[in-house]
Design goal:
The chain is of the alpha+beta class. The chain has five helices and three strands, in the order E-H-H-H-E-E-H-H. It has a three-stranded antiparallel sheet with strand order 1-3-2. It is globular, with a radius of gyration of 14 Å. The model has no long low-confidence stretch (mean pLDDT about 85).
Amino acid sequence: AIFDFQNFDIFDFSEPSPMHELIMIALDDESSSWNPDHGPKEELATFATDLLVSRREMLDDYFSIMVTKEGSLSGLPLLVDQYYPLLHQIPMFLLRLATEVDCDSALIPLL
């Protein structure tokens, strides 16, 4: 399994999916725990999208998460043979990736 790291097959979307729209879907879901104190949903979705776009090279290099420079999700890694991403969970995945993963401290050099 360690030899497959960074060498996963990719689940390519037939058309890239706009992350801003997907994140807005997640923010509308009550499990996102969004409340008005967090700020307007539109601004949060824009911030999250911009953050993911700014990290697109790292997301691709380390995790095979494919993000276009225009802000769309174009592919996800296939981590397990014959298992495909649950498409209805992608909006919350993107929201959590942008808001709960600290990429600056999470990446530890391997050597």
